Amino acid sequence: MKYYLTTPIYYTNGAPHIGHAYATMACDTVRRFKRLQGYEVVLTTGTDEHGVNVERSAKAAGKNPKEFVDTIVKEWRRHWDELKIQGDEFIRTSSPAHHRTVQWLFERCRNSGYVYKGTYTGQYCIYDNLYVNDAKPGDNCPECGRPTETVTEENYYFKLSVFQQKLLDLYAREPKFIQPESRRNEVLRFVQSGLNDLSITRTSVQWGIPVPGEAPHVFYVWFDALIAYLTGAGGPEYEERGLWPADLHMIGKEIVRFHAVFWPAFLMAADLPLPKRIFAHGWLLVEQDKMSKSRGNVVRPLPIAQVMGADALRYFLLREVVFGQDGSFSYDALVQRYNSDLANGLGNLASRTLSMIHQYRAGLIPASQGDQQIARNCNAATEAALDAYEEFEFNRALEAIWSLISDIDKFIVERAPWKLARQNDVESQKLLDNTLYTAAETLRIVCGLLSPVLPEAAAKIRLQLGFTTPIESVRTSELDWGHLPEGQKLGKVDAVFPRADAKLSIEKMQQLEEQELARQNALLGKAQPAALHSKAQPAAEPAPAATGDGKITIDDFAKVDLRVGLVKSAEPVKGADKLLHMSIDIGEPEPRSIVAGIALAYKPEQLIGRKVVIVANLQPRKLRGLISNGMIVAASLGDGQPVLAGFLEDVPIGARLK
Ligand code: MSP
């Protein structure tokens, strides 16, 4: 029995953050669970490498797109290795195998009459890679709120509009095709409101898969990325591997439409089988906020894995967040859960059980049937956990397992094996055998049940229980009571989850996070010093606090570093009619690169040589791939028109405004 599941393929204009890790760890958990059930599982992941966004990031890093993505892809792969993701295939959209699959699928759609040529003029969001059909020039993208760009292109179109009824029939026939229910309803509403044909090629981008015989057309990134799922199943020869159709596409909630509408339509047009299930999870926030580079609140997964372990991170995320809904990460909550559930709960049960068997029974599993009440609890918890895993309700699975851990803890305390050990009568010794067997057998079952979420810890505990076969060989059929062999010799006992000092652990993670950020910035060719984005910064320099009447103190005002600057050069930003890119001397060794939305009010030649006021200590940010390291001060008139602040007298460059 085969089970084919996929993660989305990740954009390569940046390195992974904890949200990506969450998404991928969840898929790996499903992979491990399905193997536990006895499936021959294939999990694919990979990278979505084409498009204008990557083209621009590569340019900013001073590399050509291929060189750039090669570096970034190494980063993604390294993350998945360190986070113990058992991916079976890593699909790169820049690979020849994938190019071939996309071109093949296009030909199939064209041959069946679902592709035609047309012209499009309108707004486009480069961040979401979407045409924004109802937008006017200057409008922002309704998905991400960032400015759209006007484009005119001759494109190939996919006749999405003719699939409306077929898609609605599909959703009615397969009620579990899109889950959870809320996402299904969202898709239903979208499709019911009518579908526009979809442009599936671009001529404005070079970095993409060429449309055969149609240079300079390249495929639209979504008529490229989605097809990676088929590339992973063997491409045009997919029938040979027996993996297609996929059993599950696990995705984030914001890309449901692409997966539940576009993707089945492409496949129907090409007369190929449809995936069985699409499950959309929610977003991982950081202390309730969306992660973003400009907010400087991005959390990276490796520092956490290095300090607390990859298992602990996965456990925290799957235990804390209701899968399907949004959830929140914080270092504090992570360390708290680690100590209460892993160190005190599971870790303590393991070390206590195993050391007692070493101490009282020379490290050999005693002969016993175990306690029948605990046996029943175990079987019930196993059933509940497996049911929950099946529905991707990870938090519920973990709750069921932890309620078993707490049952067995109570049982051990009540039996007080340390007292029984001191009594030499046959009855007490039998009861001690029964107690130790019960604890060890529960631990064995718990290990099996937890192996999808705590792969490393489960493997370690299994070894300590004396098993020589790997945790990956365990199947659900062995999870009922009574499989622990009498006389089995335990391995060496070693703490799996030593208690963590909260303060030290958090400091260490934050320190590593800063180093990781600096390393990734260097990789992406980013100019800004790492410290400016550091998480520690807000703590060291809190935002100006308003006093009770909404006023700030003079000290708060003094934190804003306002300087006189001289505009050395100014030029329009391609594709953004409001922006100017300037180089401004504020008396530092190098002039600052600053991007400002003043192009409608000032022509570049009006600005060169002019003295302006700059906020010099703002966090740098990137606009259209250009670093903006500072802000130019202007009055904003009623219609939003900016008027630059300036001086009547002559003032020296770099002078501070107080
Ligand atoms: N390249 C497309 C997917 C193409 S699949 C054929 C893409 N890439 S992405 O890198 O932007 O996002 C990949 C996945 O990561 C998405 O499913 C997205 O939901 C997920 N996440 C990105 N940030 C996330 C969080 N903060 N939390 C949870 N998942 C999030 O979209």
Account of the 3D structure:
Strands 1, 2, 3, 4, 8, 12 and 13 form a 7-stranded parallel beta sheet that branches. Strands 16, 17, 18, 19, 22 and 25 form a 6-stranded antiparallel beta sheet that branches. With about 650 residues, the protein is of the alpha/beta class. The longest helix has about 30 residues, at about 330-360. It has 22 helices and 25 strands. The chain binds 5'-O-[(L-methionyl)-sulphamoyl]adenosine. 5'-O-[(L-methionyl)-sulphamoyl]adenosine binds near residues 48, 225, 252 and 291.
> What percentage of the residues does DSSP assign to strands (E)?
15-25%
User: Quick one: biggest sheet?
Assistant: 7 strands, parallel
Number of strands: 25
Bound molecules: 5'-O-[(L-methionyl)-sulphamoyl]adenosine
List unreliable stretches of 5+ residues. Answer: 528-547
Please report the number of helical segments.
Answer: 22
Broad structural category: alpha/beta
Shape call: globular
Helix amount, in percent?
40-55%
| Rg, alpha carbons | 29 Å
Integer average pLDDT: 92
* End-to-end CA span: 73 Å
Give a topology summary.
Layout: E1 2-6, E2 10-11, H1 18-36, E3 40-48, H2 52-60, H3 65-82, E4 89-92, H4 96-111, E5 115-125, E6 130-132, E7 149-158, H5 164-173, E8 178-179, H6 181-192, E9 198-199, E10 201-202, E11 218-219, H7 222-225, H8 228-232, H9 238-241, E12 248-252, H10 256-269, E13 278-281, E14 284-286, H11 301-308, H12 310-320, E15 327-329, H13 331-361, H14 372-390, H15 394-415, H16 417-420, H17 426-450, H18 455-464, H19 502-523, H20 536-540, H21 554-558, E16 562-573, E17 576-585, E18 592-596, H22 604-607, E19 611-615, E20 621-623, E21 626-628, E22 631-632, E23 634-636, E24 642-644, E25 656-657
Parallel strand pairs: 1-3, 1-12, 2-3, 3-4, 8-13, 12-13, 14-15
Antiparallel strand pairs: 5-6, 5-7, 7-9, 10-11, 16-17, 16-19, 16-25, 17-18, 19-22, 20-21, 23-24
Helix pairs in contact: 2-3, 5-6, 6-10, 11-12, 11-19, 12-13, 13-15, 13-17, 13-19, 14-15, 14-17, 15-17, 17-18
The structure holds 5'-O-[(L-methionyl)-sulphamoyl]adenosine.
